[in-house]
Design brief:
Blueprint lengths: L11 E3 H8 L8 H5 L3 E6 L2 E2 L3 E3 L5 E2 L1 H13 L2 E6 L5 H6 L5 E2 L7 H6 E3 L8 E6 L15 E5 L3 H12 L5 E5 L2 H9 L5 E5 H10 L4 E3 L12 E3 L3 H17 L1 H10 L10 E3 L3
Parallel strand pairs: 2-6, 2-7, 10-11, 10-12
Antiparallel strand pairs: 1-15, 3-4, 4-5, 8-14, 9-12, 9-13
Length: about 280
């Protein structure tokens, strides 16, 4: 969830070079250690529809859940999910509460400095969502005098705060623990707009086409990858091999069509343009 347009300082980096940079260093549990017991433990924020959330039966479902299960099958291990609030998910990884994060984690230069991240497995960027009964907001400057909802400490939240200052926009940014609450507030007219990942926005619009509209262009390009501890480069290599196999077999396309109605897992733009 970050990206820059217009007058912001753009950070444009090739993902391949960033992954190599971000994966250097040593010192934590190795890939063999992580998978030796035949279990891959995944940290996930279960409030982020359609990526990872609880259904009516309280079952954990979503794009990332299907992907993680397919990944584990490809690796020949069992998967276990540990739910955690987004604002604590990276600390939990470093504390070795789980082996990796598969929770719609955007690849950014800052994260590549502190973690080992895979090649992207799904495209992503941030957009602004408006209610259909209001004037659609097409650019960040058009948020002047409005209230904008964002999930706390996501790249969308970070981008909104940066754009507010650099573009001099008088917008109130209201932070939510999860996007369910943000969209409930948008529906209830407690806020005017929401800024979030494009896949999330598309899902909510598809569920409520008479209520919401994606009103802006995609403001950023920040594809999503699996996050491991910085020293776990061998684990990341194994994940990359499995991701490639799932892409080549058509499994990633199948999962994407199920949740997005289109394939967001092919021809992913790997150039990062990030608002940090």
């Amino acid at each position: 969830m970050k990206r820059k347009l217009l007058g912001l300082s753009l950070v444009v980096l090739l993902l391949s070079a960033l992954v190599l940079t971000g994966c250097s260093s040593g010192g934590s549990k190795t890939s063999e250690d992580a998978l030796a017991d035949g279990v891959l433990s995944i940290g996930v924020d279960d409030t982020y529809l359609p990526m990872e959330f609880r259904d009516d039966q309280n079952e954990l479902v979503g794009f990332d859940i299907d992907f993680a299960n397919a990944l584990a099958e490809e690796l020949g291990v069992k998967v276990e999910f540990q739910t955690v609030a987004w604002d604590g998910i990276f600390n939990g990884l470093n504390a070795k509460q789980y082996d990796a994060i598969i929770s719609s984690t955007s690849i950014t230069p800052e994260r590549l400095e502190g973690f080992s991240m895979t090649d992207p497995y799904v495209a992503n960027g941030i957009v602004i969502v408006s209610r259909k009964d209001a004037t659609p907001v097409k650019t960040f400057k058009e948020l002047e005098g409005k209230t904008l909802g964002a999930q706390i400490e996501t790249t969308a939240d970070i981008a909104a705060e940066k754009l507010k200052v650099e573009e001099g926009v008088n917008v109130e940014i209201k932070k939510f623990d999860g996007m369910l609450d943000a969209f409930a507030a948008l529906q209830g007219k407690q806020i005017d707009n929401v800024i979030t990942d494009v896949g999330v926005a598309m899902y909510y619009v598809a569920q409520n086409p008479d209520l919401y509209v994606v009103s802006s262009d995609v403001l950023t390009n920040e594809p999503i990858g699996i996050t491991s501890r910085l020293a776990d480069t061998a684990t990341t290599e194994k994940f990359n091999e499995a991701i490639k196999a799932l892409q080549e077999s058509g499994k990633m396309t199948e999962i994407s069509m199920k949740w997005f109605g289109e394939d967001m897992t092919k021809d992913i733009d790997t150039k990062l343009v990030v608002i940090e």
